[in-house]
Amino acid sequence: MSFFGVPRLPPGIIARPRLLTALDSAAPLTVLHAPAGYGKTVALAQWATTTDEDGVWLRLREESAAPARFVSLVAHALDDFGLIDERNPLAYADASLMVADPWELLERGLRRIGGRLTIVIDQSEYLDEKTIRGILRLLADLPQLSVKTSTRTSNAFTESGLALSIAVTRIGPTDLELTIAETAAVLGVTERSERVRQVLEFGATPAVARVVALDADPRTENSSAAIEARIESLLRLHDSAVDSRFGAFMQRIALTDAIDTDFAVELTGEPDAAALLDRAEREGLGIWNAASPHASGIRSFELSPVFRRIIVRYTRRELQPATLRELELRIAGWHLAARRPFPAMRIAVAWKDWDLATDIVRESWNEIIGGRSGLGLLFADVPLMTLRNLPLISIVLAISANANGNQRLRALEYFALAVYGARRQRSRSRPADRALLLTIESAANRVSGRAAPALTAAVAGLDLMRTMGPAERDLLGRNEPTLYNQLGTTLLYAGRSADALECFRASTAVSDAKGLLAGLQGLALQAGTLAVRGDMPEATTVLADAGTRVWPDSWVDGYPGSLAVVARAYLTLEQGNPDAAAQHLATLERHRSTIEHWAVLADLDALIALLKGTPETAQVHLDTTLRDQKARHAVHSDMIAELRYTSALVKLAGGNVTAAEDLLAKAPDSPRRRVGRARVALARGDLERAMQLLTGWGDEDADDAVSSRVRGEQLALLAGAISLAQASAPRSERADHVHVALRRLAAFLQDRGLTLPVMLTPIAAVDAMLNAAMSSTAAGSYDDDFIDLLRRARDTGVIGGRGVRPRLTERELAVAATLAHHSSLDDIAAAMSVSRNTVKSQLRALYRKLEVGSRDEALSVLAAWELSPSAHDLR
Known about the structure:
This protein is mainly alpha-helical. Among the domains are: 3-176, P-loop containing nucleotide triphosphate hydrolases (Rossmann fold, 3-Layer(aba) Sandwich), CATH 3.40.50; 181-233, no CATH class; 241-319, Arc Repressor Mutant, subunit A (Orthogonal Bundle); 518-595, no CATH class; 669-796; 810-874, Arc Repressor Mutant, subunit A. The protein has 48 helices and 9 strands. The protein has a 6-stranded parallel beta sheet with strand order 1-3-4-5-2-6, sandwiched between helices. A 3-stranded antiparallel beta sheet has the order 7-9-8. α34 runs antiparallel to α35 (637-653) and α37 runs parallel beside α39 (708-728). The longest helix is centred in the C-terminal third of the chain and has 21 residues, at 708-728. The protein is elongated.
């Protein structure tokens, strides 16, 4: 290895051994802190070309400020120079940074590279304080890492107190100033020359020396204004056509901080742009950056900041606004073609070119989302009335704000703007754009809690995708898999899981064909959808496929891979291991507050708690989740409907049968509601009602309405009801159809890889099934796995193993409330305005229902079940 990415040193550079010695410091951090023009970049480049250390050079831009953008820059530099293998967490840094913590990602990536590494960060004044603090923490945690950085401004790197926590070598203006001998060498004169004195009086900076060296007249004034005027004179050299041409050339290339030869030709119209850039380098106006040996091999030229600032000021003053706009928009297009969307977006916003801004988002969706904080700042001053006509920009701003737990209301505002703009534009758009706008409308409505319009847009979007021709589909470009993922997610939460799976499979297929990453999310969505439906063999197959692929770091346990985590949790639950399922879900903990899959996670949390025998924990978690998501305005009717079934199950497991009945009574009729009500009936011992609810299902209840999971629960409850009925019948009247029901249940569970339907069957019914399966007439009819499942379900006793909440009348509740405040029969009778005998009769009925024999025992049971008039009113 060696030092990669070092800019080429301009000609005529003098040796400065004292600076090289200072830069050879073994301290983990070396800081060059001085204003522009002091030669910081050149000094670092001289050191990097002579050192034996291994490392990479980073030249920062304004868009590098935030942690995610900085880490992306580091990752690309390391990758460009062949330092990252396929398994390195930094291999897909931009995708990973959409969900990963930047510093965790970078630290693990650097550890995998191994060995000592130096990173040169040129122009760290562009970094924000959060990024600098992250770099400092990285230096503390990685002894093999060192950083050498230059900065024009004060920042955390330059704080004096930093030396208390980390060794720092500081190189300041005095160290960077030219000595008399160095000044004479730059000017090509003797040390006693008047020109040397002029430079020393002005500040002895390399930039001043270079400007003075360009002036052949030693009598010229050396004030700041004169020096700037001298730089401008480079642009106004009228002595020959060549110099005039060079000045015009410099005006144009100064509009971008870096430029390659091909684009310099295109931007300036000069076929010998390479020679003109070489001339600029010879005159000390800038430097060539080294080309990457592993990337495109294209090198770029960068103007010195001090010169560029003056040249740009002159250019903006001299050029007509229309010409300036045309040049800068061409520069934006060049940045976009080179996959640098943020510099392009900055130009588009500055010139209010909203068509270009929309194209930038369309073509660089993932990069824009990955750097979402920078995008939000860029559009901070753009009026909302403008944004409502820019749905693609509004949606990425919404996603950005939604990822920040403190900006949910702003996100909802942006989502509303996206919906408005999408609806307004799609009627007059071509099919590809219409599909994109429908997807935006669907996603924005879904995340905003508007389920019905979200579904309408998703259905229309999928229909359009199905009928779209290849030419129109090609116009979707890199966004096609993302459209499928978003449409499918809406369809999934609207109960259209078959259509959702079609979308997720299409996402993966398109991504595989085009070499894109979004299909990995499609795989995760497939796995989660299949597991939620109860199709565990298919979910296992998809997870196996996902496991063979290389995922961007933090996708596996972040939002893109979250439903694969759900699938793995379901698999471990079906295998009877709630602790392992909880460990899977714990990997998503940091996303819980903002992830839109919160309802699925809440359902899994409840199941895990029930299988661990803690329905109280399930209820608390469920209530807390609903409260927090309602506060975020992230709850819509479909989610409430789905969680109603979960809440009813939790109430039933806790023994509160009445509350479970009340919750299910509010749900519209569906197979899942019938299953829930049958489970309640079975817990009450009402076999006739249970069997009425569980039989007579026809073909109209197929596919989405009756998933494998719902079908499994139906078969388990039906077999349990039949087993209970047969167990109570006289032996002479018992029929063999109980074994028909049990064998059908066993076969279905084995085929679908399910156990939860039996685990969630009331314990009395499970016990009856086990007795029937173990009877002498059934000997050898059932395999050991099925018998073991029945035993485990009986021993766990999720439903009915904890007793049933007593169902008290209004009068009994009144007696219970009075009992808490009075101990004697006379006092209770007086408080209720009834006779002593009436109280005795009512207390006997109350004690019988509570299964207690004393007042103290009664009060304990009442407190445990939260039985009071106020509690009853809330049920």
